[in-house]
Write a structure and sequence with these properties.
Radius of gyration of chain B: 29 Å
Largest interface: A-B, 38 and 42 residues
Distance between the termini of chain A: 9 Å
Number of helices of chain A: 4
Oligomer: heterodimer
Low-confidence stretches of chain B: none
Strand order of the largest sheet of chain A: 2-1-4-3
Structural class of chain A: alpha+beta
Number of strands of chain A: 4
Number of helices of chain B: 13
Strand content of chain A: 15-25%
Mean pLDDT of chain B: 90
Strand content of chain B: 5-15%
Low-confidence stretches of chain A: 1-6, 134-141
CATH architecture of the largest domain in chain B: 3-Layer(aba) Sandwich
């Protein structure tokens, strides 16, 4: 287990957040049912109390959910992005191209094997990563 | 409904009691006003607490980044080093390395002093890395050195932020904490940029900063390359009847070379008969601008501490050679992270621009110098 894994939200925190969420929703539902049955109940202290407690609980639970969602962002920043290697045939007329995942040891303009179509030498023409919004992050740890 | 009824009975009995009591009304009034008074009295303390909490959170992230950089560096040294012993103590020693800049009290000649100290620093770094990884190839050594420098920079950022955080907390200095909290987004952006570099330097992938080197390499593709000055290569190609000398750092290991020395040497080799110098480099993209946009201008396009820029400007002025620049826009984060597709896609546009500049500004038979600036990691 790395130091990063230790920093993930604890199961206790998760249980607390979800319990709070369920309780808040229950309180709000009870208040809503009471008001639906009798609209004048909206001024009732108990209903008001349930609304306030339910609302506050929902806010706290939302914050907890936000923290749980926000936590992996540091992981995403540390995760490696998949890189693409483009290997092209050096014969301009052939135009054969092979796009594959980057392998350690690849570098741009490295000669790599022969073209399966025309037997001319193949060369790595590009190594790049897609923009972050497009790329699916690789979880390394 | 059941819950409402139970609650109603409970509240009536326990919480509110009898209403209408004047004392109780006063108490309620005080309970309402006291928080406001407390807020105004302790506003600074509350604000300090919020800022310190922000800094603490950022500091935790910086620590995670620093630790991961150290871990990746140790793993890479173990992988390519070929040593049985654990390299951690040597890596830790590297992470604390420092560099003292020459004094500027007497600025005359400071560029050469700085250049000399940078050379010493680089050779010291390389020796240190070679001792840690004796079986690594030259390209792997360069990549490892770059990787360790990233870890060193992240360690420095973490140590400095921690220092000001603890100092601010100890002295409860409002302005110290405020300044640190305000520049925190910039610090975090820089640290995240370094994190992006970990992938490139540990795997040997091209980085955004290498776009100048990539353009130069593509221009001299097929031409015979020869070394010129330290860690630099030059190739000779013909473009529209002009002899074009293309220089870049020697790849594919992580290396920026000494473009200033290479430009100077090539101009002197040709006895100053260079019609035009074109520099290609990554330039800072402002927020809202497009990544990979290609623009042109005048002047020596080269970053760093300024020693290489000084050398190019000196020699260009001496021989009255015009210096033009082609810039590819990218952010600091893009510059040291693995090269993005948008940047790679701009290479042909840069080459077209260089060809147009050559045709427009020189005549057939002239010699032109093109310098591709940047770290050539992952690029031959």
């Amino acid at each position: 287990m790395t130091s990063l894994e230790k920093r993930r939200p604890s199961p206790f925190f998760k249980i607390l957040t979800y319990t709070l969420l369920i309780l808040s929703l229950w309180f709000l539902l009870e208040a809503f049912v009471a008001i639906s049955a009798n609209p004048s109940m909206i001024t009732d202290r108990s209903v008001l109390y349930l609304l306030v407690m339910g609302g506050l609980g929902l806010l706290l639970a939302s914050y907890g959910l936000l923290v749980m969602r926000r936590q992996p962002s540091i992981w995403q920043k540390l995760a490696y992005k998949p890189a693409t290697t483009v290997v092209e045939c050096t014969n301009q007329q052939c135009g054969f191209k092979n796009v594959r995942r980057f392998r350690k040891g690849d570098y741009v303009f490295k000669e790599e094997g022969v073209c399966p179509q025309c037997s001319s030498p193949m060369m790595i023409s590009a190594i790049y990563v897609e923009s972050e919004e497009k790329a699916k992050l690789i979880k390394r740890w | 409904m059941a819950l409402v009824m139970k609650l109603d009975a409970f509240l009536l009995g326990q919480l509110w009691g009898q209403t209408g009591d004047v004392g109780q009304q006063m108490l309620m009034y005080l309970l309402g006003i006291v928080p406001f008074i407390l807020f105004f009295m302790f506003y600074n303390k509350i604000q300090m607490f919020i800022w310190l909490r922000d800094i603490e959170k950022a500091l935790n992230k910086l620590k995670i980044m620093r630790d991961e950089a150290r871990r990746v560096a140790i793993e890479s040294v173990k992988e390519v080093g070929g040593l049985e012993e654990d390299p951690s103590p040597q890596v830790d020693q590297f992470l604390e390395y420092f560099f003292i800049e020459p004094t500027s009290l007497d600025p005359a000649g400071i560029v050469w002093k700085l250049d000399h100290l940078l050379d010493v620093r680089e050779s010291k770094f390389k020796d240190h890395v070679r001792r840690m990884a004796p079986k690594a190839s030259e390209a792997q050594l360069n990549n490892l050195e770059n990787l360790l420098e990233v870890a060193l920079d992240l360690n420095t950022i973490y140590r400095i932020v921690r220092h000001y955080y603890l100092f601010g907390k100890k002295t409860m200095s409002f302005y110290l904490v405020m300044q640190l909290q305000m520049i925190l987004p910039l610090i975090m952006q820089t640290a995240e940029a370094y994190v992006g570099a970990l992938q490139a330097f540990s795997l040997g992938q091209p980085i955004g900063d290498g776009i100048g080197a990539l353009v130069a390499s593509k221009l001299m593709l097929g031409a015979k390359r020869r070394p010129v000055e330290k860690d630099m290569v030059v190739g000779e190609v013909n473009i529209e009847g002009r002899t074009v000398l293309v220089t870049k750092a020697e790849g594919p290991g992580g290396n920026v070379g000494k473009p200033g020395d290479a430009v100077k040497a090539l101009i002197e080799e040709n006895a100053g008969r260079i019609a035009l110098i074109i520099m290609v480099d990554a330039g800072l993209k402002l927020e809202g601008e497009k990544l990979g946009e290609v623009i042109e201008g005048v002047g020596a396009a080269i970053g760093g501490v300024g020693t290489e820029k000084y050398k190019i400007e000196e020699v260009a002025t001496k021989y009255k050679i015009p210096v033009q620049a082609v810039i590819i826009k990218e952010s600091i984060r893009d510059a040291i992270s693995p090269m993005k597709k948008e940047l790679y896609d701009s290479v042909n546009a840069v080459i077209d621009k260089i060809k147009r500049l050559i045709v427009e500004n020189t005549k057939e038979g002239d010699t032109v110098l093109v310098a591709g600036i940047g770290n050539t990691i992952g690029i031959l």
